[in-house]
Structure formats: C-alpha cells, structure tokens
Automatic annotation (TrEMBL), chain A:
<protein>
    <submittedName>
        <fullName>GANP domain-containing protein</fullName>
    </submittedName>
</protein>
<feature type="region of interest" description="Disordered">
    <location>
        <begin position="1"/>
        <end position="43"/>
    </location>
</feature>
<dbReference type="InterPro" id="IPR045107">
    <property type="entry name" value="SAC3/GANP/THP3"/>
</dbReference>
<feature type="domain" description="SAC3/GANP/THP3 conserved">
    <location>
        <begin position="252"/>
        <end position="470"/>
    </location>
</feature>
<dbReference type="Pfam" id="PF03399">
    <property type="entry name" value="SAC3_GANP"/>
</dbReference>
<feature type="compositionally biased region" description="Basic and acidic residues">
    <location>
        <begin position="169"/>
        <end position="209"/>
    </location>
</feature>
<dbReference type="InterPro" id="IPR005062">
    <property type="entry name" value="SAC3/GANP/THP3_conserved"/>
</dbReference>
<dbReference type="GO" id="GO:0005634">
    <property type="term" value="C:nucleus"/>
</dbReference>
<feature type="region of interest" description="Disordered">
    <location>
        <begin position="132"/>
        <end position="210"/>
    </location>
</feature>
Automatic annotation (TrEMBL), chain B:
<comment type="similarity">
    <text>Belongs to the CSN12 family.</text>
</comment>
<dbReference type="Pfam" id="PF01399">
    <property type="entry name" value="PCI"/>
</dbReference>
<protein>
    <recommendedName>
        <fullName>Protein CSN12 homolog</fullName>
    </recommendedName>
</protein>
<dbReference type="GO" id="GO:0003690">
    <property type="term" value="F:double-stranded DNA binding"/>
</dbReference>
<dbReference type="GO" id="GO:0003723">
    <property type="term" value="F:RNA binding"/>
</dbReference>
<dbReference type="InterPro" id="IPR036388">
    <property type="entry name" value="WH-like_DNA-bd_sf"/>
</dbReference>
<dbReference type="InterPro" id="IPR045114">
    <property type="entry name" value="Csn12-like"/>
</dbReference>
<feature type="domain" description="PCI">
    <location>
        <begin position="249"/>
        <end position="447"/>
    </location>
</feature>
<dbReference type="InterPro" id="IPR000717">
    <property type="entry name" value="PCI_dom"/>
</dbReference>
Length: 510, 454
C-alpha cells in the first residue's frame, strides 16, 4: 500500500477524518487508483489536490450507495476525470462539491426512470458551473450533499429543456378559458366536458390541467430524484409531481411502484380510455378475473401517477369495484370503494347512490356500528329516498329489529349488484332466523314455510342448507310434506349462528 | 411579558400549578382583553430569549431552579411568546396568519414543555401547564383543519401509491395533536416517582383530552388502547376517588359512552351511573350529556323509561326523548316509527339512533301485552281463581300491530308471526306459536310478559 507514494500522503491526512477508510479499503479500490494513476502517467498530468480528494472520497465505504456496483462507480469516476482532463477543466471544477460518481449514477438512474429523455449527468455536471452559491452549503456534509446537490443541478435547467419533446407540447399551450374546478357538480357541465373530450381532446380542461401539472412536475421533478435516492423517504416522495405518460400500449402488467414511474411505461388518458373499452370487451368475452384485476390495477396506477382525477377515473374505479364484487374479491372491492368515496366527495359524476348503498350493505356485513352511524349521519334526505339507498337502509333496519321476514323479501329484490354483498351475510342471517324460529314455533313447521321465509329458491336448497349445518335430523317426512321439528333443535342453530357472527372477515376495511 | 414573568415567579414561590398555567394561556382573560397584545409588543424576536433569561434565571427570588429547569422554562416562554404572536396575527387578520401556523407554534411550546418533564425534571405540581397546553393544542388543531378544509386544498396521494385519494376528510393537524397528547399521556403514566409527587395525578385529565380528540376524529376504537394501558397500570395508581371529581366524571362519561358504542350496555350503565352520581348537581350540561346515553341504556338493560319528572328538569332531553318514550309506553308502533324518523338527525348525531331503534321491541311488547290483557279471563274449570286466556289467535295480535299503519303498507300474517317469534326469542314474551292452528300459546301464571306483572 505504501508504495503509492503520491496517494498515501493524501490518504494519511484524510484518514484523520475518516479513520475507517484505510482499513476498509478493498482490493478493488487499489485497482481503481491504479487505473487513475495509469491515466496520470500516460497523460502526464499533475492531478490537482481536489481531484485526488474526490477520487478518495468516491471509495470511502460510507459513501457507498446500495444498489450501485463498485465497477459501475469506477467506470463513472474514470469518465468524469477523463472528460475533465480533455476539456481542461480539471482546475476549474469545484471538486469538493461535485457529486460523487455513485451519486451521479444514482441520479442518472432516477432520471431515467422519471423521464427517459432526461439529461445525463454531464448536464448536471455543466449545471454546476452555473450555480455556485448554493453548492457552498452542501459542500462538506456527505449526507446532505447526496440529497441536495442533485436538485440544485436540475433546477438550473429551464423547463423546456426538461420536458419531453413530444409534439403535443405545442398543442398543450393552446389556452382554454375554462378553469378546472374540483367541484363541478352539475350535469350540464359534465356533459360539456364530455363533449369536449370526445370532440377535441387537446382542448379539454383535462389537458389544460395536465399541462399545468406538467410544468409543476418539472419544477418538482427534482424531488423525484431526491426521493428515490433514499429508501426511507416515504414522506418526501409525496412532493413529487405528476408524470405525463407516453406509452401507447393498451395492456400493461401491474407492478407496485418502488421508484418514480417512467413516463415511457405510463399511458396517457386517451390510451387509458381505449384500454378501458378493451378491458370491458375482454371481461365480457373471457371472464378472466386475475387478468382483469391486474390490468385494472395498472390502469389505476397510471391514473394516479398522472394525477388524473375526473369522470373517467370514477368510471374505472366503479367498473373495477363491480367486477371485484362479482368475483367476491373484497379486498380489491374495498380499495375501490374507499377511492370512490373520496372521488364522489368531489362531485366528479358516476353513480354515488349505487355505491353508497353498497357501503351500507357492507357495514351490515361487518357489523360496524360506528361507521354505520357515520353513514347515516352523512346521508341527505334526498339520498334516503333513492331506491338503492332506501333498500339498503331497509335491510339494515329489518336486521336491527330481527325482522327476518322483511329482510329475506328485501334480499330477493336487491337492486344493482347489492346481492353479491348480501350473499356474504345471508348464511348467518338464515342461521339467526332459524334459531329464532326454532325457539318460537312448536311443535313443528312445514319445510315450505322455511323455504319461503328464508328466501331459499327451492325446498331442495333448504334441505341442502340443513344438511350443510348437520341439521338434517330435524327434518321429518310426513304425508303432507317435509316438516322441521322446531322443538328438537335445541341450541343447534344458536351455536351455529354465534360462530357465523364471530367470523366476520374484514379485508381492506374502508 | 414582564407581568407573565412576575406571575411565573409568584407561582414558583408558592408552588401553585393553576397560577403557573395561567401564564401559558393563549386567551386573554375578560378583565384584561389586551393581555395577549401587551405580551407580544413587550418584547421582540431578538430580545425574547434574553428577556426570559434575565427574568427567570438571573432574578430568582424565593425559589430555586436547577440550571436545566431554568433553561427549559426560558425556551418555553420564548415559544409561548412566538405562539402568541401567531394567535394575534391570525385573529386580527386572516391573511397575516393561519391557524395552521398557530398550531405549529403551539405544538413547539407543547414539545418544549414535554421535554421539560423528560429532561429537566419539572415537578408534578406544574402539571396544569400540560393541561392548558394540551387543551389549546386540540383547539388550534381543530381550527387549523377547519381552515384547511374551507380552503379546499386538493391533494393527491403521496408516495408511489396506486390510488388517487389518500386523505379523504382529512384532519391532519388534529391527528397530529392526538399524537402529541398521547406523548403527554405516556409522560404521565410512565412516571415512576412516588405517588405524592407523581405525574400520574394528571392522567385522567390527559386521558379525557385524548378521548375527546379521538371522538372528534371518529377513531373511538383508539380509546381502547388507552384503557388497556390504564388497566395494566392500575396497581400503582392512586385510587379513583382521590382524583379531582371533575376528572373522574368526565373519564367515566367517556368510558360509559365507549361501552355504549360497543353495545356493552351493562358496563355503560355502570360507568354512566357512577359519573352521574358524582357529577355536580349544577353542572346541567354534563348531567344532560350523561343522561343522553344513560336513558337509552336503561331502556335496553332494564326496559325502563325516564320519569316525566326527570325529563321535565331537562327541556332539551325532554324534547329529545319524550315523544319516543310516550309511544313506547303506549305501545304505539306507528307513533314510535314517526318519532324515530322525526328525531333521526339528532339521534344519529349523538350516536344513539341505533340503540333507540331497538326500543321498538319494548313498544311492541307493550302493545302485545295489551292484546293479552284485552283477551280477558277464561272461566275457571273447577271454581278456582280466573286465569287469563293464554291462547291468543295470531289474528288478534296482527290487528293490533296493523293499527295506525299507513295505507299501502301491508303487514302480512307471516310478518306478524316473525315479530311474535322475535318477542319470544328475545325473552320479552313467553310461549310459542302453533303455526298450523294460528294461535300463540302463552305461558300461564303471570309470566307471559316477564317483568310486567302479567
């Protein structure tokens, strides 16, 4: 080690600050310094102190960034120094504040993810010459330098250089008198918007909004890089602006985001609209839930990263919620329902009545009194009169009063897709009703009575239900038909009911 | 600010917590409406620290603070002075300040105070300072959230989430306040000092503040954690009776309401009754609140209705409960339904709707009982005492149930049977339905309607 005289002298001084350096130095480091020294020799350049320190810093273990290979870093380092030497900027560069090669790689990768047309480090490199004052602050502190020098570099870029140079950039500049507002409630306005998006998407307020956001995005773009540079920066990630997608493919597999989305794999609104139509067709034709669910999740993700929040968004969530409901995917259904609740609150259209009714039915299922009370408090008098909501409220009150007779009648006349939700608690309510009947009726009742009262489709189905609950011994065949010996049931249904009520499975609770 | 420091010194000399806490109030007392303004103008950003330092540390007369303690108080008063500035700005000119800024400034004060207990050994007699800070922290948080909602800031979900809406109906500041108050709670409950100088004496006040916040946030279940922590520490707690009655009444009220919401009416009744007995007789509003939950509770646990005399003493409660109680008493189902709908909004707001709804069973029971009584007696077979007719046709009950039902609203015999079955199932009526014969066979010997004498 001590053979590298030029090097050791520096290292010795530096090691006062970072004693760990020498001991932690792996062979790779020596190789790299050898490399840089060979360059030194071939070009006969006397490396300024700044450069040497810079190289040294690059190899300090504390400055390692997980996920960036040493070899990559070395390559970058070499590139940086060679370029500086070629451009004769070795002495003009402020090596103290120049991002370390690993940081450059990191920002490059992050930028690649956020925009493929992003400038390479060389741009941020050149940007360093522009902004000097801000660098001072961050010069010595490793930790903060890692996170702050990059935004500085990016901010110095004018927006038009950062945005993707797509053709629509121009059409987006067409100003539009309509100011997007969050609570455009009335139908006429929505209709208006619909017309617009159909006739000339470029002029719709959605696009205006998009454009506005894009420029916000540019300003905030720096945050993306910063955010992705730290794994635990969940909060700062939030400051990231929307992405503008430019993916033209209709289908896309869902991946959970772990870094800023890449615009190349994000589909813009018009593509998403076509995607939805295609998914609807496929669902009707193929009925393949795992495919559909995956596609809808990526669709939702694309909407989110682009901050698209309009009637189309509502539509996507509604359709996904309905499909999930049909397939009994309660977790996914709940996610959609939560989103819809927030979206409806902003009056973006859709079918709030239908989904509010589902909500009520769901809270019946989960026996959630606190939330039920809240729902009741939120309903307006008009909403209470809407058939779907009225139905759900009637279901609730029938159950609250133990009126199974009315409950099962309501079950047979459920609007929309509410029956899928009611199916989730129909068994336990049947058990409760049977516990009730067995206690109240003596000595027996006709099976037909049970079939009718408990909303079974046929006597056969009723018998099946008894068999499933080990209660077939209570049925007796007589000349005038099958009878249920209520007097002999004992606590059978009471026990089964208690078990059924305990087992309320709550997934992704709203 | 000088007067604040004078009061501080006085409080330190005599060891008066309430007096000390009065120096940290962000509200001007009625007799001194300009207090806040005077405080704020009496110092400035650069001077406040040295002002506080010279008053609190250098001029200690009659009391002695440790170095850490003195410095902690200096920081606290500097933070207080800043918070007062924010309050004035926000109250006088909505553009100059926001409640959110007030909240942040006040939170700084709260944090410094907490730190004072953690690292500068503030004594337990100063606890009222925590009360005042916690109380206004909550107030400011609510104001800040209201203001944010009114401004309607549209937010997008943060992070790399897949979905659009992340903070529906947000209460950012209040949730934050709940966390700070929770820290105060931990500060109190984890104090290992001997009881006489323990911060545990502050527990119930802080818990009440937390409960209040959780209720406002609609996260009542969080209260259970607090109760569990309290339960786990119950062995080294002073006895309940030795705490200030006001703390205990409020605490029991919340415990009662929490049990009530969980449908544990027996425990709810116990807690509410305890609180009502301890509650000051002139604290009408508090008594009214307690009764709001105790009355529906009793309706379900003991099927008892409030007396006219009790209701008469509380006009608001009378208005709330009287119509429904009268209908229950008379067995007037139609009237009951109407009364429930009429009061629905208020009932839902007070979270008693779902409980009161079940009072319909009692109304129905009373109605059926009337039918039973109207059935009269059967001629005794062997000259004994006459006994009531216990075989009642379902049709008779059906007729009674249909009274007052609106035209078009049909109640068929099956539904009537269902209602009767429920009565039997819930033990409000004893007997059985013989469906084939269309009669109800009720229990003999005065037990057909348990607890009602027939």
């Amino acid at each position: 080690m001590s053979t590298h005289t030029a090097y050791t002298a520096v290292a010795a001084r530096k090691s006062l600050n970072r004693p760990a350096m020498q001991s932690h130095t792996p062979n790779g480091k020596m190789a790299a310094s050898n490399e840089s020294q060979t360059t030194t020799k071939t070009k006969k350049i006397d490396w300024p102190m700044g450069v040497r320190l810079y190289v040294q810093r690059s190899f300090v273990p504390e400055n390692n960034i997980p996920g960036i290979e040493k070899t990559d870093m070395e390559k970058k380092l070499k590139e940086v120094i060679t370029q500086a030497a070629e451009h004769d900027t070795l002495n003009s560069i402020d090596w103290d504040t120049l991002p370390l090669p690993q940081q450059m790689i990191q920002s490059e990768r992050a930028k690649l993810a956020s925009s493929s047309a992003a400038p390479h480090w060389s741009q941020s490199f050149s940007a360093l010459f522009v902004k000097d004052s801000e660098k001072e602050k961050t010069s010595k502190k490793r930790k903060s330098a890692e996170t702050t020098t990059l935004p500085v570099a990016q901010e110095s870029l004018p927006p038009w250089r950062k945005t993707n140079a797509r053709n629509n950039a121009f059409e987006d500049r067409i100003s539009h008198p309509k100011v997007p507002s969050v609570d455009r409630g009335d139908k006429r306005q929505r209709k208006f918007e619909e017309d617009f998006s159909r006739n000339d998407p470029s002029k719709s307020d959605i696009n205006l909004e998009k454009r506005r956001r894009r420029f916000e995005g540019v300003r905030l773009g720096a945050e993306y890089t910063r955010a992705s540079s730290r794994e635990d920066s969940a909060t700062s990630e939030g400051e990231a602006g929307p992405v503008v997608g430019r993916c033209q493919q209709l289908e896309k597999k869902y991946f959970r985001l772990t870094a800023a989305p890449n615009p190349d794999s994000v589909r813009p609104l018009d593509v998403l609209e076509r995607t939805l139509e295609m998914l609807k067709r496929k669902w009707r034709k193929e009925n393949n839930y795992s495919y559909i669910c995956d596609q809808f999740k990526s669709l939702r993700q694309d909407l989110t990263v682009q901050h698209i929040k309009n009637e189309f968004t509502v539509k996507v969530y509604e359709i996904h919620a309905r499909i999930a409901l049909e397939k009994g995917d309660i977790g996914e259904y709940n996610q959609c329902q939560t989103q819809l609740r927030g979206l409806y609150a902003q009056n973006l259209g859709g079918n709030p009545v239908e989904f509010k009714a589902y909500r009520i039915l769901y809270f019946i299922h989960t026996c959630n009194r606190t939330d039920m009370n809240e729902v009741l408090a939120d309903l307006t008098a008009t909403e209470k009169q809407q058939p779907a909501i009225k139905h759900a409220l009637d279901v609730r009150s029938a159950l609250a009063l133990g009126n199974y007779h009315r409950f099962f009648q309501l079950y047979l006349n459920t609007p929309n897709m509410g029956a899928y939700l009611m199916d989730m608690f129909i068994v336990r309510e049947r058990l409760l009703a049977l516990a009730n009947i067995c206690k109240a009726y003596r000595p027996d009742v006709k099976l037909r009575f049970i079939t009718e009262e408990l909303g079974f489709e046929s006597d056969g189905e009723t018998v099946q239900f008894f068999v499933e609950h080990d209660a077939q011994h209570l049925l007796e065949e007589r000349e005038d038909g099958v009878r249920l010996l209520t007097g002999k049931a004992g606590a059978l249904f009471e026990v089964a009911k208690s078990v059924a009520f305990k087992r309320v499975d709550i997934k992704g609770q709203i | 600010m000088q007067r604040v420091f004078e009061t501080f010194k006085q409080a330190q000399r005599i060891g008066s917590g309430p007096l000390l806490s009065s120096t940290l109030s962000p509200v001007a007392p009625p007799e001194d409406p300009n207090r806040l303004y005077d405080i704020y103008t009496s110092s400035n950003e650069t001077r406040i620290i040295s002002d506080a330092r010279s008053a609190i540390i250098y001029q200690q007369t009659g009391y002695k603070l440790s170095k850490a303690e003195g410095n902690a108080w200096v920081d606290i008063y500097a933070a207080y002075w800043k918070a007062v500035g924010q309050v004035i700005a926000t109250e006088t000119d909505a553009r100059a300040g926001t409640w959110s800024a007030v909240y942040d400034a006040w939170k700084e004060l709260a944090n410094l105070l907490i730190k004072g207990y953690q690292s500068a050994d503030f004594e337990a007699w100063t606890l009222p300072c925590l009360y005042v800070t916690g109380k206004y922290l909550r107030t400011f948080a609510i104001k800040a959230d209201d203001q944010a909602r009114r401004r309607g800031t549209v937010t997008f979900s943060s992070g790399f989430q897949d979905d659009i809406v992340s903070d529906y109906g947000k209460n950012d500041k209040l949730e934050d306040a709940a966390r700070v108050i929770n820290r105060i709670f931990t500060l109190c409950i984890s104090d290992r000092a001997p009881l006489e100088e323990s911060r545990k004496w502050g527990l119930y006040y802080v818990i009440n503040l937390l409960f209040k916040t959780y209720f406002k946030l609609n996260s009542v279940p969080l209260s259970k954690n607090i109760l569990r922590a309290l339960q786990a520490n119950r062995t080294d707690m002073p006895v309940l009776e030795s705490f200030p009655a006001s703390h205990i009444v409020t605490f029991k009220y919340y415990v009662g309401v929490i049990s009530f919401l969980e449908e544990d009416y027996v425990q709810a009744e116990e807690a509410l009754t305890y609180a009502l007995a301890l509650c000051h007789k002139d604290a009408r509003k508090n008594r009214e609140l307690l009764l709001t939950y105790l009355i529906p509770c009793r309706l379900l646990t003991t099927q008892s209705l409030p007396s006219a005399k009790l209701l008469a003493a509380y006009p608001h409660l009378e208005q709330l409960f009287k119509p429904i109680c009268q209908c229950i008493k008379k067995g007037d189902l139609a009237g009951y339904d109407k009364a429930l709908i009429a009061g629905e909004e208020e009932f839902v707001k007070r979270r008693i709707y779902l409980t009161l709804e079940r009072g319909r069973d009692i109304a129905l029971r009373n109605l059926l009982r009337k039918v039973f009584i109207a059935g009269g007696f059967e001629t005794p077979k062997d000259g004994g005492a006459p006994i009531r007719r216990t075989r009642v046709p379902v049709a008779e009950f059906a007729a009674a149930i249909r009274i007052g039902s609106e035209i078009g609203q049909t109640i068929d015999t099956d539904e009537v049977e269902c209602m009767l079955a429920n009565m039997i199932y819930k033990g409000l009526m004893k007997g059985y339905i013989a469906r084939e014969r269309g009669i109800v066979v009720l229990s003999k010997g005065g037990t057909a309607f348990p607890g009602t004498g027939v």
